[in-house]
Amino acid sequence: MADPVSALNGASYQGFANVREIGPLGMISLRAKPDVAGLSNAVQAAVGLALPEQRRIVQNGARAVGWMSPDEYLIVLPYPEVAAALTAIGTALKGQHHLAVDVSDARAVFRVEGAKAAQVLQKLSPADLAKLEPGELRRTRAAQVAAAFWAEGDGYTLVCFRSVAGYVMGLLTHSAMPGSELA
Amino acid sequence: MSTRLSKGGRLIDRSTAQEFTFNGKRLQGFKGDTLAAALLANDQMLVGRSFKYHRPRGVVGSGVEEPNALVNLGSGGRFEPNQRATTTELFNGLEATSQNHWPSLEYDIGVVNNYAARFLPAGFYYKTFIQPRAAWKHFFEPIIRQSAGLGKAPKDRDADRYEQAYAYCDLLVVGGGIAGLQAALVAGRAGLRVILLEQAPHWGGRAPVDGDVIDGKPAQAFVEDAVALLATMPHVTLKLRATAAGVYDHGYVLADERVADHTPGDGRPKHRLWRIRAGKILTATGAIERPLSFAGNDIPGVMLAGALRDYVVNYAVSPGDRTVIVTNNDDAYRTAIALKEAGLEVPAIIDARASVTGDLPAKARALGIRIEAGRAVAKVKGGKRVTGVAMCLQAGEGAVLDEIACDAIAMSGGWSPVVHLFSHCGGKLIWDTTQAHFRPDATRPPLNHDGAALVYAAGIANGAMTAAAVLADADAQARVAVAALGGTAAEAPVPQAAPVAEAPMDAVWIMPQGATQALKSKMWLDYQNDVKVSDVQLAAREGYESVEHTKRYTTLGMATDQGKLSNINGLAVLAGSLNADIPQVGTTTFRPPYTPVTLGALAGESRGEIFQPLRRTPMHGWHEAKGAYLEPVGLWRRPYCFPRTGETHEQAVHREVLNTRSALGLLDASTLGKIIVKGPDAGKFLDMLYTGVMSTLPIGKCRYGLMCNEQGFLSDDGVVARIDEDTWLCHTTSGGADRIHAWMEDWLQCEWWDWQVYAANVTEQYAQVAVVGPNARKLLEKLGGMDVSKETLPFMAWADGTLGGFNARVYRISFSGELSYEIAVPASVGLAFWEMLHAAGAEFGAMPYGTEALHIMRAEKGFIMIGDETDGTIIPQDLNLGWAISKKKADYLGKRGQERTYLASPDRWKLAGFETLDGSVVPDGAYIPAPGVNGNTQRNTQGRVTSTYFSPTLKRGIAMGLIKGGLDRKGEVVEFTNLAGTGTIKARVVDPVFYDKDGERVNG
Amino acid sequence: MLILECPYCGVKAEETELSPGYEAHLKRFGPGSSDDDFEAYMFARKNPKGVHFERWRHSYGCGKWFLAARCTATLEVFGTYPAQSSEPPAELVAKIKAKRPDWKGFK
């Protein structure tokens, strides 16, 4: 099979903050109630991480697990590991009501980096960024589309749907243009 | 004459000259000037014409209240009409032109309206244009259109960019005068997140102009110290040039920051719209001075006393050499004193009050100024410029006692607190009789989400009229707000302003009290819309008792200034005419925005490429590169067709249809909705969702399904595939995936929450390609990897495997009637897969086809399309889809709705096919008329077309439509209207399956 | 513009992150129900001036439906609670009664 290509093939923009599309990342959407037997084993088997608390994301290098809703988790992992992880999850949760699907290709992922990265998101999302806690995964909107982001390294990682990657890149570019710093 | 003084000017930098033009004339001002100040410094008193009578208009105010000095700014992509010269910061190269005049500002033809003013009374438009009806179209409207409007709409695309930003705070303080600064200090010291907004480009408001002394130092020193201190607080945000335009529910505030109005083209956004969410809001928005109503109060040179003082003190501009003061209060004496101290003449202060006491009049007297108590202006002399004033008794009818030569008049009718932001979200006002103004009623504030007060007013905005009272009130209100926010205000002394004893004002609304009708018809209330005292009185005589009705009848306060100067005066005149108290008559409603917000700021980033989210499939770039003509399908853009050089769209569509039917067509079907439904109760759930039975679908098979809403109306359709024991994949329409996924979640979360089902929208995980046509199987067999034979993969089956090395899920489904495979591959390799199909398919005649070919081919087969055959009022039975409805199921969504007698009526229109007798195409939207007319004298109808195309396959027009009786009328010839309504098109009712009735082609 | 706290994820979401779902606690009437019951389920809405119970979906967030009690006149929000509730929680009802003594109660 051909090599996987991310939505924008790694587009980037340098403004007062730097914006770049990353990926493709492996992503699994896991639906299960938190008290389902074997859930933490499943996540542990998939990416070696513990289940996150409400609205948190736990990370270890290229692997992460985010709390998306009371019965939904987003598992992030290297792209080639998705199939194995799905098998591991299926094994750990065998007989338990759950849903695990590969959504790697249904998403686009951006990094917004630099000292003023928060200002870029402040123009697009109604979230109160000053109150975003370390390790908090915030699901919200970026202008007119759904997005999720969390603080990571020198900025933020933002996830949106693949089909609107071009729109989101346009938003981030507009918002990061030199001369439009908020402070 | 109006000129620049040799000294002074607290806001200007005389070392930095700024060149600008007004009506093409090159003029010069200083950095720090407003455009109005610079115009006045150049003796340009005449700045525009009024709306109705085209009377000459001069600058009246010095800020947002200005009704007259509206100009066109800039040119080309930076042209903006209706900009207030009083709030426009001067910059080098500024171009301004005056508005609403022809042929020139000095000589305006429209001024004939002025001489006809007695024929243009209040309600003139309403009265005149009723009869004769024909006169409106041929006479009145053309004239009104010619003369209407202030500035001209911009013609070019806006050259600037705009943006929005979200901000959160505990306390939002609006207004950067001494009240706002003190309030921000209290909240800032308490450690709260504070945002302080000031609409002007400088801090301090009126106090520095008025010469207030705070804690023994000039007010300016207090302002500078406060700003410096606030700037050290990391949780306090200070913004100049930012106007809070509106207060909305739950502490939502829109504020317009004019980032680069004064530095055009420097690359910054022109405006930034702040979407602020505040825990509480404190309005320290000051007050706006009211004019006095006397004859000739609109002649250029008549200005608000406070504004005139601003020009002298802030910009060292003297609007006149000899300025007469007309007042009903002490504050205007500050203007007299400022003028005198600047070396200018004040020939008289005409004070309506019988007795004049207080510190300020005493000081004026000491400066040798003549004070005329109990006097009024009988009339102002002059045309395009004040030349003098005739004085009379306030208590009389206007007999002239004396005439005083002057070239400017400073008037003050008292001050009205700016209550707009307090009122936007429901705050109530009380009438303060002593100060003759409305002020916020703290006992009836606008409420927040918790039912507690949302907005507090402070300082002059709260009716505290002296500097000492302002500071005390601001401190107190801020402490109340801090406590309500759960904070603790630090102990700190309230700054003390030196007391100035002011005598009470007199509520004088017109001058003189017994003015004749002739005088009243020269007393302006609304300068921009030309509403006079006589107009409001006429409205009252004609029975307009409600202030809201009077406003609309007279247009009082409906100009671009929204009545900032005129409302209270107009209200008082109305109350007087009705012999009612002012609070009884009430105010008009204050609505956002406080000052106009440019549309660019409201649009923010949403223009051009990112006007709205455009959804792209993985093959989108390929389509664009191939010159596809795209059409919107929801937020997706799908290729309508792929025209070749020299081809029309119609020719391209026909080629695509014929090629697909004869060889091989490839369709990007990635937009098709794909929802995974999984769980022990998934089958039961899908049986409720679809009208048919999905629980019995064997693994590996597909079944067509219909979804209805609870009313029974068809909502979506698509093919469902059974993946494994407890997993199904539901295809939805292209635009429908998000809606149907939300619909599933709604039922799972809110009604059947104990059912064990999960749904996941995986639409974008896959690129999907329909490989369609007699050569479809040949192409897939060439690619190899899995068995796609008729036997292994029969119609309505699916299989996982590989094709040409790609992991693929292949569905044997067909929306065209041809042999067809819909193939899903991961989106990240979608483009590569698509390109491989084209390369490998070339030998089999592969061509891409678009949505129009898709539509034609499905219509040739009589397949319905959601949105064409359905419109939210159609049940499946109407479309002869009863076969897709389970008769055995006790329940499904929409079943009860479909049982309604109305929906079972034999009179309902049902689906049929139509073939025109002459082979032509029935126009889109055509109806089949029936005899007679309905209650609205419209022709009765018995059917309408829902899909109509030229079939390239059959070489004739085909149509689907709804007709009373449906297929019972097969063979009958009916008549469709043509679109012009001038004739009919004969068509025969036929079976809607026009092509391959036996369905043999689907097997190849 | 409203702010409602999502009871599932704890986000104080503003209205633009939510989708409205109209009146809460409607009882579904399916096949076999009377015309009156079906009409009430389908069309008859309370639309009160005052205390009202509504459905909202945290559509730009966790995706969960929840229910909210608010005053349609003042926009005061009394509380939010999970959609898996056949009637408002007792403590919320008590809170509303305390704030709105004239309120006739749920139903």
Spatial strand arrangement across the major sheet of chain C: 3-4-5-6
Which CATH architecture of chain C is right?
Answer: 2-Layer Sandwich
Question: What's the helix count of chain C?
Answer: 2
Rg from Cα of chain C: 14 Å
Report Rg of chain B.
Answer: 38 Å
CATH topology grouping of chain C: Folate-binding fold
Q: Largest chain interface and its two residue counts?
A: A-B, 51 and 52 residues
* The CATH top-level class label of the largest domain in chain B: Alpha Beta
Instruction: Report the β-strand fraction of chain B as a percent range.
Output: 25-35%
SS class of chain B: alpha+beta
Shape of chain C: globular
- Unreliable stretches covering 5 or more consecutive residues of chain C: none
Unreliable stretches of chain B (pLDDT < 50, length at least 5) are none
Give structural notes:
With about 180 residues, chain A is of the alpha+beta class. Chain A has helices spanning about 40-45, 80-90, 115-120, 165-175; strands spanning about 10-15, 20, 25-30, 55-60, 65-70, 70-75, 100, 105-115, 140, 145-150, 155-160. Chain A has a single domain (about 10-175), classed as Probable tRNA modification gtpase trme, domain 1 (Gyrase A, domain 2, 2-Layer Sandwich). Chain A has four helices and eleven strands. In chain A, β10 (about 145-150) and β11 form a beta hairpin. The mean pLDDT of chain A is about 95. Chain B is an alpha+beta fold and about 1000 residues long. Chain B folds into seven domains: about 5-110, 2Fe-2S iron-sulphur cluster binding domain, sarcosine oxidase, alpha subunit, N-terminal domain (Ubiquitin-like (UB roll)), CATH 3.10.20; about 160-285 and about 415-485, FAD/NAD(P)-binding domain, CATH 3.50.50; about 290-355 and about 370-415, FAD/NAD(P)-binding domain; about 515-585, Orthogonal Bundle (Arc Repressor Mutant, subunit A); about 640-670 and about 765-860, Probable tRNA modification gtpase trme, domain 1 (Gyrase A, domain 2, 2-Layer Sandwich), CATH 3.30.1360.120; about 675-760, Alpha-Beta Plaits, CATH 3.30.70; about 900-1000, Aminomethyltransferase beta-barrel domains (Elongation Factor Tu (Ef-tu), domain 3), CATH 2.40.30.110. Helices cover about 25% and strands about 30% of the residues of chain B. In chain B, strands 9, 10, 13, 14, 15, 16 and 30 form a seven-stranded mixed β-sheet that branches. In chain B, strands 42-43-44-41-35-45 form a six-stranded mixed β-sheet. Chain C has a single domain (about 15-25, about 40-105), classed as Folate-binding fold, CATH 3.30.2270. Chain C contains two helices and six strands; from the N terminus they run βββαβββα. Chain C has helices at about 35-40, 90-100, and strands at about 5, 10-15, 20-25, 50-55, 65-70, 75-80. In chain C, β1 and β2 (about 10-15) form a beta hairpin. At the A-B interface, β7 and α4 of A face β9, β16 and α24 of B.
